[in-house]
Structure formats: structure tokens, C-alpha cells
Amino acid sequence: MSIPLWGIFLECFAAVVTFGLVFVVFGRSEKEITQRVAHLYAISDSQFLRSMGVLLGPALVAGNRAETLLNGDQIFTANAERDSRGGKNDHV
Known about the structure:
Layout: H1 5-27, H2 46-56, H3 73-85
């Protein structure tokens, strides 16, 4: 029993499409800023929060907060404190 030639082509096409979709969905999960962004608003301005939400993904809303941590002790200390409190953070 032999497989028809069109069946082999169909299977290959399906495999390529499946691989392509998996690559597109899971290939780049993090957003990356590739161009220099002009400073148009002060950090205290509400428009700054809206523009950051559009630029990086989920909007900053009441109850959310952003904190700048420098590499090293600050990051690890903050993660350890959060873990000990049982909190949940989404890192951007």
C-alpha cells in the first residue's frame, strides 16, 4: 500500500504551517523598544501612564505600580520580599 503523492505534499504543508504558527505565537513573547522614545510628558502627568501602557502592553491602572530596580541586590531583595509575602508580580 503506497501513500499518494498529494498526501505526502499535504502532510508536509500541514507540518510547515503548524511549525510556522507555533513559531509566530511563541517566538517573541517580550515587547522590545527598538527606537529612541521622545520625552513628551512628566512622570507625574496622567498622559505618561497612558502612553506607557500603549507602548509596553497592559495599562497601568489604580492598584498597579511600577518600580525601577537596578541589577543586583535591589532585584533579588525585591523578589525575595515579594515571595515571602506571597504576592504576585508580572515583570515587564
